[in-house]
Amino acid sequence: MKLSEMFGKEIVNLFDGARLGTIGDSDLIIDGINGKIESIVVPGKGNIMGFWSDKRQLIIPWEAVKKIGSEIIIVDLDQADEKNRNLT
């Protein structure tokens, strides 16, 4: 799959059905030596009633990606994983 084919796909958590963001709004961390994707960084900023709130970024390890469909990417993160992968 080409990287460009991933843009616009929504990321959904298999654990709780939460929508985590889209690949177009996210960053990918890529290993500079072998070129493999290491993780997806989902930004934490959100617009709440016209104000920008600062949330933590969510790091999703590539190993958590379970399925890439035509419109969504399914990841498997439980609540303990999510708390451990949040950044400021």
Can you describe what's shown?
The protein is mainly beta and 88 residues long. The protein has one domain: PRC-barrel domain (SH3 type barrels, Roll), CATH 2.30.30. The protein has two helices and ten strands; from the N terminus they run H-E-E-E-E-E-E-E-E-E-H-E. The protein has a four-stranded mixed beta sheet with strand order 2-1-9-8, with no helix packed on it. The protein has a four-stranded antiparallel beta sheet with strand order 3-4-7-10. A hairpin with a 5-residue loop joins strand 1 (10-13) and strand 2. The radius of gyration is 13 Å and the shape is globular. The N and C termini lie far apart (31 Å). The mean pLDDT is 81.
Report the CATH architecture: Roll
The assigned structural class equals mainly beta
Note the beta-strand portion: 35-45%
Q: Spell out the helices and strands N to C.
A: HEEEEEEEEEHE
Envelope shape: globular
The total tally of domains equals: 1
CATH topology: SH3 type barrels
- Biggest sheet overview: 4 strands, mixed
Would you report the number of β strands?
10
Low-confidence stretches: none
Helices and strands in order, then pairings?
Layout: H1 3-6, E1 10-13, E2 19-22, E3 27-30, E4 37-42, E5 46-48, E6 51-53, E7 57-61, E8 65-68, E9 72-75, H2 79-85, E10 86-87
Parallel strand pairs: 1-9
Antiparallel strand pairs: 1-2, 3-4, 4-7, 5-6, 7-10, 8-9
